[in-house]
Arylsulfatase (Variovorax humicola), 808 residues
Amino acid sequence: MTITKRIVSAALACALAASTTSAQNRAAPEVLPKASQAFSDARIGRTYKDSTPGTLAITQAPAGAPNVLVILIDDSGFGQWGTFGGQVPTPNLDRLAKTGLRYTRFHTTALCSPTRAALLTGRNHHSVGTGVITEMGDGYPGYSGQIPKNAAMFAEVLRQGGYSTAFIGKNHNIADWETSISGPFDRWPSLQGFDYFYGFVGGEMDQWQPVLYRGTTPVSMEVPKGREGSYTLNDSLADDTIRYIHQQKSVTPDRPFFVYYAPGATHAPHHVPKEWIDKFKGQFDQGWDKYREETYQRQLKLGVIPPETKLTPRPKEIPAWDSLSPDQQRVAARLMEVFAAYTAQTDHEVGRILDALDEVGQLHNTLVVAQLGDNGASMEGTLSGAFNELATLQGIPEDTAFLLKHIDELGSAKASNHIPVGWAWAVNAPFQWGKQVASHFGGTRNPLVISWPDRIKDAGGIRTQFHHVIDLSPTILEAAHLAQPVEVNGVKQKPIEGVSMNYSFDGPKAAGTRRVQYFEMMGNRALYKDGWIAVARHGRLAWVTMGGSTGDFDHDTWELYDLANDFSEANDVAARYPKKLKELQDAFWVEAKKYNVLPLDDRFAERGDPSLRPSLIAGRTDFTYFSGATRIPEPSAANTKNTSHTITATIESPQGGADGVLVAEGGAAGGYTLYIQDGKPVFEYNYMAHERYKVVGSEAVAPGPARIRVDFKYDGGGIGKGGNVTLFINDKKVGEGRIEKSVPSRFGAESFDVGMDNGSPVSESYQAPFAYTGTVRKVEIHLAPSTLGASDRQKVRTAQHKAAMAIE
């Protein structure tokens, strides 16, 4: 039977499938903003002498409404945190769990942007246009990459309900083409319900020299004096959260706050100070197979998995630890030490925030929701791990010898490291697979801790009801005594698709209220219904970076698990219960049609095609950037890759000369920079921190006006090839050189800058921002027509897709 016929058949058979509409939606309809009552008691005469002013009221939150702190950790496995059996001690999460509840059957979407969209809106990820990450949006309603206005975030409901609201950390729900100064900004936090935003835009960020925003204004991370070399973004985001809590409670001690704290840890790059790494030296020499067995035993002892749970076996595609050479084991163990250190540091920062709540006397009156992962641990680090994940995910290899050469730099500003697949699988124990794989719990089952001492009395309890990330929004609104509105800011709202979890606070044995839940990500899919789950892992392995089979939807192998007796999806009973499998397969098509999952799309390289999305640069070959043009996102800047091009900087050099960056794109993980040092122009190309090519001018730039030009003649013959560089001052050749290899797709998450190099520095010859001390009048870039053939363009799309996944 074809997919189309299945959809029709399923729709007829399952038209009355169980609804997941929250009880909140059955409350009295509410429209936001509420009708103003201002001036209703005013008496207006001819002058103020015979008039009486009305009352101007401040919106008050409902009585008993708690503060709300949502903590969202990134790329985190079920068996990663000590609180859920992992080897890394997490005392602050333990502390939170001891005052609250641990949820062991909580689920995400298997990928970053989709989970965040689902969390903040209370709707399924396809239902709010986020079937994949924002960088891969296209023209289908479930995949636009843009959260629609008819799915307002619960932050807006809280804000209009009397809360102060703040978003601190990672925002990965703004489309690529809406991240520049040209906007629009209506999908930025300040227009989605948050009074305050401090953080970064995109999927990942350099922890040492991040590119940040306060509101919509670019800012730099301020490093406290004496903390140079040990202060990272993890520290800064926690400091800002603490500062916000202190200020908000100082000004309005009786007004509740909502803080959404999403630090971006533990997503790659795994950057963490050396003093944290040193704490874990030698602790992972046992390898991933043994780690997984040890974690399983700890999980049984803690009671976070049932006694009858089986530890699922290692997939044949992942090598056994004992099959690795001593050098491979050394590198893999070190990468895991860094990842563990990153996890421990993150737990420490969470503890500092809890201390701040305690300090202001609000810990007991704060609903803390700690979600440990927007998906399972990432399997995107290749089988051997990565020094620079952005390189390996674009098909640029790193062998063991290369990794050994850089082993002491892992975790530092020079690296963008990522753990091997084997470690990601291990910390997803006891489940199968990991991030991207929405069919299995390794990708979708994440630990959840909820603490609210004033309300939750079963301190330290465990809850086993099946729930999904869309259930957090109605849970928080119910706790705040606020109804989900039917209209927000003039837009009729889609019903909330989540269900409240508040019933579980007092009912450890209460029947779960989530009866049905679908899962889908890039063709991997599943359907949960009343204690059973049918799953189909589809096509490409998560760590296959270039190409890879996409599979056949009509011939996927479906598995069936009886979750009432099989916590870890270890025993496939599809052959024993074919009718049950068919029931759930049919139900999947009903849910898929209802929530905009269709059309199923497993394309890989094609989805990286920029023509599928709006673009600020499509079709342009000539670009002019003026003084002050900085922090331009890479997708909105001139794309100089895989073609010949010229870069011309028109400058004014003062008497005595001037040094600094004229133009730069990218950062320490890869990019290019044209700068003046010791009076001489320099063009440097950073090939993904693997190789660096530098052309230094033979003459200094004289005082007065000058034009510094770089001509790059691309070799052609495919993508990522080399080329010849010629450097000019006022049309006089002053240097030439050779770039043997070039980056095929994206340099990373950093920006294009005129007159400085924001974020991490492209070159190791200067410290960012190394602003030019003369005047940059303008920078002009001309791109020659592309000579790439159809197959080459396909390879570019593949590389763009993987780079987007890395930046995710």
In short: Confidence is low (pLDDT under 50) at residues 1-27. The CA atoms of residues 110 and 375 lie 4 Å apart.
